[in-house]
Amino acid sequence: MSAAGPSRWLRFILRRLLQAVPTLFVIAVLNFGIIQLAPGDAADVLAGEAGGATPEYMAQLRQRFGLDQPKYVQLLVYVKNVLSFDLGYSFRNGMPVRDLILQRLGPTLLLMGTTIVLSIGLGVLLGLAAAAWVNTWRDNVVSVFSLLSYATPLFWVGLMLIMVFSLRLGWFPTSGMEAIAEFHEGWDRVVDIAHHLVLPATTLSLFYMALYTRLMRAAMLEQWGMDYVTTARAKGLTERGIAFRHVLRNAVLPVVTMAGVQVGALLGGSVVVETVFGWPGMGLLAFQSLFARDVNLLLGIFFISACLVVLVNLLVDLIYFALDPRIEVR
Amino acid sequence: MREFWRRFSRNRAALVGLAIFAAALATAVFGPLYYPDGPFKLVDKPFLPPGGEYLFGTDMLGRDVAAGIAYGARTSLMIGFASTALAIVGGAFVGGIAGYYGRWVDEGLMRWTEIFQTIPFFIFAILLVAVLAPSVGSVVFAIAVVSWPPMTRLVRGEFMSMRNREFVEACIGMGMSDRRVIFVHILPNCLSSVIVTGSLMVATAILTESSLSFLGLSDPNLMSWGFMVGAGREFLQRAPWLSAIPGVAILLTVLAINLVGEGLNDALNPRLRHL
Predict the structure, then answer these.
(1) Which helix (H) or strand (E) holds A96?
(2) CA distances, B230 to each of A196, B226, B245 (Å)
(3) Which terminus, N or C, of chain B has the lesser number of Cβ atoms within 10 Å?
(4) What ipTM was predicted for this assembly?
């Protein structure tokens, strides 16, 4: 940890959050544009739900939702609402969009967190191993494995894992996050959820693990050629000491950067994985909203996902500073 | 050209990739001719296992899975290449302008690109296809919209490094229009890196398309591999081949394109060779 005082870190966090506002603003405007692309407006949707409505009632509805206002006023109102996390109402579910999403946030965060830890951990280890055994058969095995993981569609990996480990071997449950009917409590519940988590987390991790493995291998090989390694050798350090004390620390930086870049993609991947495994998170909610043609809910999920990306990127930067004291927190 | 081929063929993995890709391309072009009745035709009893009368068996409605694979190859490759072409044109345009003019133009465009890079891109693609209604056009458009930023950054970087080279200064000194300098003189010099990145983008686009169609967001009139996996999902116990076979097709195609892309990278940019 650098010598920066707590107020300095706080200032950094605040500034980064302020910088995120334009991004979120653009996304809100994009959302509004997408609503305009969709056929029909909210009044049409409501009338459709009710099975038809008189023109007078439609006009009344439009007035209530402000749909009779000029477009730019509608845009401003919409953006203001979204930026204050008022994401509208999901008529299909009879609930505000925000509450619906908040219910589903926990499972998604659990899946994401596990995946990030798993993929970085294993990716770094495999990358290290491949770099240590560079150009031997072990290195080739790791390379082939990561090439394959890189090219396999997530949903297919998930289905094949279900086929082998759930249907054939019966080791893991096929879907869901916990066996609700069994009313597990306390530690039993944790174990139960972990048991359900194994297959989805493995599926989602595979691709990113491949990515980090390749990155880590390249970074290790690059760092080995650096002058500081020669210096360390001249000091009489063991190869193992150099690898773990000095090279590893530098080589891990690009992996951490990449992990931050990949958060958005990870959320996209979780839509597919949650759909395959019936994992009750935001991704499954997105899939369900597709079927229900609930565009408003889908827009809300998109916006909240973007907020998550911003937050995780901030977290990644903080980790980065902790790892690399040369970078100053400003 | 001969020099290029010599360097490309030194990479054995790339040659394997090229062979698989050629097979996929041949399936896409000639496969449908072999199944003139289309992939939706009911040919026999449902759930016939592979290896019998039908190479890959029949699905839950009694459609020939092999016919689906053949038509799916056409869909996947077409959407992969079309969306990448669109993303390259858009990305190269924005990146070229940003890199050539620099300063505030660059600042503004790059800010915009960065915002697009933070967006959870797959969810954005889902949103676009869902709102525009699933069709070839909307899928191609959605994939292009979410995949142009890396191309923009690449072209911008190339332009920035070339902006102050003598040949560009000479062109400007001769009084050439900006448009001519950009399109006729700088852009062709970026071609090799654009081709390498573009080939990898095709692979990603095919994966994205398969995920979209797995979720049910594909053109209802076209057979697609992702759709086949999704449809077979309910019958994993009874007829595992329905999901397994199209998945292998996606895997092989994407793998082949990735291998070819890396081979191209080694052959075209020997300086930038990855470790």
Answers:
(1) strand A95-96
(2) 22, 6, 12
(3) N
(4) 0.87
